[in-house]
Amino acid sequence: MHTPAIARLAMGVALTVAVNVAPPPDWPGFRGPGMDGLAIGARLPERWSKTTNVKWAIDVPGRG
User: Fold this and answer.
1) How many whole angstroms separate alpha carbon 58 and alpha carbon 64?
2) What predicted TM-score, i.e. pTM, was given to this entire model?
3) What are the backbone dihedrals phi and psi of residue 2, each rounded to the nearest 5 degrees, phi first?
4) Cβ partners under 8 Å of residue 27, min gap 6
5) Do residues 50 and 57 lie in contact, with contact meaning Cβ atoms separated by under 8 Å?
6) DSSP 3-state of 12
C-alpha cells in the first residue's frame, strides 16, 4: 500500500518538530539555566595551591 505524499510530508514534519522541541530533561541548556554561564549561589575558591582548595591531584607524565 502506498502512502500519499502529503501524509508522508505531514508525518515527517510532525516527527521533526517533536524531536527538536523537547530537550532532554536532565540538560538545562548550554552555559546553564540562564544561558549566561553564571553559577548562582556557588562559592568558588578565590585561592588555590598544591594543598589548598584541592580535593585530589595526580602526576601526569611528560608535559601533561
Assistant:
1) 11
2) 0.30
3) -95, 135
4) none
5) yes
6) helix
pLDDT tens-digit profile, the chain (64 residues) = 566 888 888 888 777 766 555 655 555 667 766 777 777 777 778 888 888 988 888 888 888 6
Residue in the block written with cell 562559592: 43
Q: How far apart are the first and last CA of the chain?
A: 62
Compute the CA torsion angle 49, 55, 59, 64 (nearest 10 deg). Answer: -80
Pairwise CA distance, residues 33 & 24, whole Å: 13
The DSSP call for residue 3 is: P
Print the SS3 string covering 14-57.
HHHHHHHHCCCCCCCCCCCCCCCCCCCCCCCCCCCCCCCCCCCC
